[in-house]
């Protein structure tokens, strides 16, 4: 892929020296869609929010030049295009980026049409005519070189962002927002920021390209086909990296020119058919044809304590009167629970008794209907999970939740990079080595057996350097030798100052590990105390084994 990009930019920057006027025009179109596609893929690829507002952001950049070129220098208008498009995307993102799937896509398409209509109405009623002349003294070759440089910059910044900790965080949010938030990622703010920055880049492209036309009107600047062709260029190339747009743009421009010239009345339908075939035969785009380089393991890292030092002076976790109902079903009723520094606490009960709901209330996954939670001496009732994760409350899930787009190493590196970026790499390798995953650091979750997936989820939780670790049936499915190994690991975590709250059905594990046990039945606290005493309680035996065994 690096060789292709080097060849692409070599040809791009040398084209004015040997190409004809037609090739220069075609090259400008290729650079246009490659740059827009790279910016589009930088957000849509990891965030999984398909935007069709490209023409709105591009058109704002065009009109920044059309309306301001007589009073401001052209390069200053690039910044104005960036700010205008970025501000619009920021406002739209704050209002809509909680929407998922088709709803966000439809909204952004409507946004582009709304902006076009507003500009048309404004020019017609306030300006007297629809459209504006653009008189910027710039040669076609100079404009071409500026766009080529902008394309190179967009690819470089986009690739850097997606490989950074914030890019990894955006991939995680796109894969599983809930799990990402429990890894310490501020999901909503990150999405809004990425959307605004990439939209600003599209505005700069519009401002740079505006002098290509002497006269612009809303139909040209806010052409909806620009949004679709940008998306096709990025999807054809592949969304794994902004470089995909530079793979997809050349064949897209050639195919579009060919179909428009030979089949002017059917070009749109034929492009749609080509897009359907693309998605069917190349779901990962042209980038999927290039192998990914394997990650190299560094020298073994030093073993480190994973807790956060001395026990907190004000206690660890206390829940008082927690209640959560789903419609008419009360999942948790007036639950009181305490976890002290350095201890392991079991939370047991039959299926459907509210154990996982209780963990969700403690970890911020769910908001209680009433009651309060105190963690580290602070009331944390209703705090978002990313805030609690950064405070040192980590969790695993009943059904393993990993990020398909991140490899094993990145799962552990991501939370560490958000908390302690300077030591993140070394600590990540240490955690992987401790859980037996160091040799699989380059693999993705789909390639791992179930046991390794569970280990990886625990490794991601440990990367938060937690004070309290909530484990939701993490021991389930292990054979006897694996179970003993897992218990030894949990014992060692306790010794390092990490308190544990376990939801478990394995009573042997509860007896071996827990200092105290809470028993839930139909959302209500049935019993609590030392494991042996609680497990001999006739009410607990009745709940687990039935009345005749009580």
List the main descriptive attributes of the protein structure presented here.
6-stranded mixed β-sheet, 4-stranded antiparallel β-sheet, alpha/beta, 12 strands, elongated, 550 residues
In short:
By secondary structure, the chain is of the alpha/beta class. 57% of the residues lie in helices and 11% in strands. The protein contains 22 helices and 12 strands.
Question: Can you give a write-up of this model?
Answer:
The protein has 550 residues and is α/β, with parallel strands linked by helices. Helix content is 57%, strand content 11%. The chain has 22 helices and twelve strands. The chain has helices at residues 2-18, 21-47, 54-68, 74-96, 102-127, 140-163, 165-175, 177-182, 187-209, 218-221, 224-237, 244-262, 267-281, 355-363, 385-391, 408-419, 424-434, 450-462, 480-495, 507-513, 531-536, 538-545; strands at residues 132-133, 215-216, 317-326, 329-339, 344-348, 370-375, 378-379, 393-395, 468-472, 499-503, 516-521, 524-529. Strands 8-9-10-5-11-12 form a six-stranded mixed β-sheet, sandwiched between helices. Strands 4-3-6-7 form a four-stranded antiparallel β-sheet, with helices on one face. Strand 3 (317-326) and strand 4 (329-339) form a beta hairpin. Helix 2 packs across helix 7, helix 3 runs antiparallel to helix 4 (74-96) and helix 12 (244-262) runs antiparallel to helix 13 (267-281). The protein is elongated. The model has no long low-confidence stretch (mean pLDDT 90).
